Amino acid sequence: MAKSHGENGPRAPAAGGHLSGTRESLAPGPDAATADELSSLGSDSEANGFAERRIDKFGFIVGSQGAEGALEEVPLEVLRQRESKWLDMLNNWDKWMAKKHKKIRLRCQKGIPPSLRGRAWQYLSGGKVKLQQNPGKFDELDMSPGDPKWLDVIERDLHRQFPFHEMFVSRGGHGQQDLFRVLKAYTLYRPEEGYCQAQAPIAAVLLMHMPAEQAFWCLVQICEKYLPGYYSEKLEAIQLDGEILFSLLQKVSPVAHKHLSQQKIDPLLYMTEWFMCAFSRTLPWSSVLRVWDMFFCEGVKIIFRVGLVLLKHALGSPEKLKACQGQYETIERLRSLSPKIMQEAFLVQEVVELPVTERQIEREHLIQLRRWQDTRGELQCHSPPRLHGAKAILEAEPGPWPTLQPSPSIRLPPDAPLPGSKGKYKPPKQVQKEQRKQVKASGQRDKPPTPSQAKVAAAAGDACPPRDVPPKDLVHQDPQDSAPQDSAYHCSQESLTSQESEDTYL
């Protein structure tokens, strides 16, 4: 997939228009009668009216890519249980990532609930952290005019992205407008990289699950953390990963590896679109979503595993190779894969069980990099190192979550009894003795203790600040509340904090 370069000046997406003659099928499409009916759709409202009768649960018009293959139906009760578990994880994300990452991985393999998929992808990819670190950045990019050499070519690609999905079926509709905004913003965010055609389907899938701003930051994470260098001008990273895939194939399926070697078929001929579009233009839609769930959690190894599984089951036995005697037949077999091996349940199980690890990928990466340098010289694209999944990304870019400090919500007089106690609070004997020494020595009860006295107090269990030092997290305090408070009282209170609430994007 070649890098796109624009030639003409910017042109805003059309407000309306005809689909006739502009749609390009990304998979076996509807019959002629349905196609003729679709050609009359000219606005979002018309598309939505049509969708009530002929749209599947993924938003695709019946007969298109989303309706291919048998769907794995999850019982409603199981789905509700999964939603409850995911809500708990998302509301306590840092804790789960730090201590229960394996559980997150297993739940991603089972499939993220559709109602929470967009939110989960933002957390897994680090897109939410990126958004919080850059408030208002997307709006700034969105309002900028953009580079004319990219705007025209982006606009020409809009109608090619999932033309049978309800979001993008209407020329100049809201879906295409948001897609234009996200892709234009990326060319401004990374002007040295610009725009590549393979970024459009990636951004379109994200927009099906989240608003434009969140989709933009997830796209940034995919381009910079998951697949760095894939969309650079020379496409060197995808060529390197093609060699890595071919080397791993020798261990996974020697039969398929030998056949492709004998036919002298370069990996770029069959894996470029697979990897650069993360299989969004290859697999049935139910399988695409399951692959993306695992991809966001575990990283690029999922993309390698899916490619290896497809190659193994398409070319991995002598019987399957009988119909692939030449280059043309072999490439056609890989371009029109059997629905059976792309079916959701079968494919996901094979991907999970395939023994290909991050360590193997990185070892092969170093081997192929040395070979590249020996034969072609140094790489011209200096992309950041690839991060393998959500845990590595979180460790590299921890969230800007503030440290929670205990602060009292109700203040009582120093001599008032604590809730649940029968009388006045009495400090430990050792602390009383130290306080009496202070009063006797200075005659002033409120004089701050010496360092040695502070150590004794700390040993007695008083881990709070000195009495006349106000808590740091109290930004505003009434004058009457500025009197010294009993330090033990501060220690006994728990903070009443409210957790960030977010609307689930459906």
Any chance you could write out the topology, listing elements then pairs?
Blueprint: H1 32-38, H2 44-54, H3 76-91, H4 93-99, H5 101-110, H6 117-125, H7 127-133, H8 137-143, H9 148-157, H10 174-189, H11 199-207, H12 212-226, H13 236-252, H14 254-262, H15 268-276, H16 285-298, H17 301-315, H18 318-321, H19 327-335, H20 339-342, H21 344-353, H22 358-376, H23 390-396, H24 429-442, H25 451-459, H26 487-492
GO molecular function: GTPase activator activity; PDZ domain binding; small GTPase binding
Organism: Phocoena sinus
Region (Disordered): 1-45, 397-506
Please supply descriptive tags for the structure shown above.
Cyclin A, domain 1, 506 residues, disordered C terminus, mainly alpha
Description:
With 506 residues, this protein is an all-alpha fold. The chain has a domain at 236-396: Cyclin A, domain 1 (Orthogonal Bundle), CATH 1.10.472. 53% of the residues lie in helices and 0% in strands. It contains 26 helices and no strands. It has helices at 32-38, 44-54, 76-91, 93-99, 101-110, 117-125, 127-133, 137-143, 148-157, 174-189, 199-207, 212-226, 236-252, 254-262, 268-276, 285-298, 301-315, 318-321, 327-335, 339-342, 344-353, 358-376, 390-396, 429-442, 451-459, 487-492. Helix 10 (174-189) packs across helix 12 and helix 13 (236-252) crosses helix 22 (358-376). The longest helix has 19 residues, at 358-376. It is globular, with a radius of gyration of 30 Å. Keywords: GTPase activation. Residues 1-45, 397-506 are annotated as: Disordered. GO terms for molecular function: GTPase activator activity; PDZ domain binding; small GTPase binding. This is TBC1 domain family member 10A. InterPro entries: Rab-GAP-TBC_dom (IPR000195), Rab-GAP_TBC_sf (IPR035969), Rab_GAP_TBC_domain (IPR050302).
